[in-house]
Amino acid sequence: MGKGPAQEGRPMGEVLSHRRLSEPIGSIYDCALDPGRWEPTLSEVADTFDCAVVSLTLNDLHENRFLINKAAGWEPGLLRIKSERHVGEINARLTEWLTLQSSIDEMFVTSVHLSPDYVQTSPYAEECLKPQGIVDIMHMFLMHTHRQFAEIGLGRHARQGVITPREIELGRLLLPHLRKAVTISDILDVRSIERAHMAEALDALRCGVVLTDERSGILHANRSAEHMMSNGGPIRSIRRVLAATASSASRELRKAIMLAARNETHLGETSTAIRLTDVDQPPAYAHVLPMATGDLRTRLQPNAVAAIFIGVPDEQTGTGLLARAFSLTAAEVRILDSLMAGHTLAETAQHFGIARSTAKTHLDHIFAKTGVSRQTELVRLTMQMTQPVHGGPLDLGQPWQQGDIGRPS
Predict the structure, then answer these.
(1) Tens digit of pLDDT for each residue in 190-210?
(2) What is the 8-class DSSP label of residue 158?
(3) Across the strands, what pairs with 141?
């Protein structure tokens, strides 16, 4: 592939002020509560990047199709042609590049990573991009496995010029927030909030939800969260201040809540999923959603600065999604169940009465099927599939649909 440096644009110091950056970030986090807001939010993101078109897609690499395809600025007919004819070409170019990267945080820019000769002869460029005057696209990756990837693609019109270092730097600032919003997305059914009072809507969720002030003071906890705090779960209430079972997790949780209160533009500095329990305990994770700004979130609890969603892996739902997505055998599912419950491989082998080498063989098969190489990556992948709680973008077959944990009882 040819390389050609992106043209210089506006000075790096003019990327965006925190105040201006907080506006699209507020809209992005509103999408975590209402996925129906993605199209107008994508349009706002495109304006922020001074781009003409934008799309949010989940790409199936085996079937060469879009499982999710939300867009703004695209001509409907050309968007349809893109979906029907050109997913294979898009997948091929992006996965070729992704396999060479040490991190998915890097941006793929057409003018940098594709040669002019390729662009001139590309069927996708010829049929979809040139008719709209699109001369460059920057791709920001939200996740990547050997079966699929999710990305935001931002395209610039000829009058806007090619992607510059400013857009790349801006992408680095927004990417953590986009990932966090997509991870949390669909955790709440906004329609149920509109139909009922906040407490009733939150109590309908099986995951724990806690609304806090900037000092981690508990303003509201749904029924599931109260149950966790009263029965030795992964969170505790210490004089109505939220804490985690693990002291290190309590510090990380407080940091995320304080960042959400002070300046949500920095919330990407915290982990997407905060593990609340020690390594020798069954894993439980929290996601922190800022509530200080944004039109929709401020209606829930005016004094709240953060909503914390607590999910404990469900042995049927969590590993079941992974088993269906990657065709795991019954023996492999048993191994995965045990590992997700916090047991070591040796303890797992002893529990099932098999040799450790046999358990290791099963684990190696799971690694090969899921495309990961370490147990921590496997746990993260399982949590990514279950933590959106409504199935989320990694639930193959029914992307963005409600799953078992988040469905009202």
Answers:
(1) 344 444 456 666 676 667 889
(2) T
(3) 151
Read off the tokens for 338.
């045990």
Ranges of each domain in the chain:
12-184, 194-311, 317-386
Summarised one tens digit per residue, pLDDT across range 211-248 is 899 899 999 898 889 999 998 889 999 999 999 988 88
| Torsion angle, alpha carbons of 361, 364, 366, 367, to 10 | 180
Q: Which region holds residue 319: left if phi is over 0, alpha if psi is between -120 and 50, else beta?
A: alpha
Handedness of CA 91, 92, 98, 99 (dihedral sign): positive
As assigned by CATH, the class of the 12-184 domain is alpha beta
Q: According to the CATH classification, is domain 317-386 in 3.40.50.10490?
A: no
Give me 121's structure tokens: 């002869």
Tokens for 49? 């990047």
Same fold, 12-184 and 194-311: yes
Whole-angstrom Cα distance, residue 14 to residue 286? 34
Rounded alpha-carbon distances, angstroms, from residue 133 to 7, 195, 344:
18, 44, 56
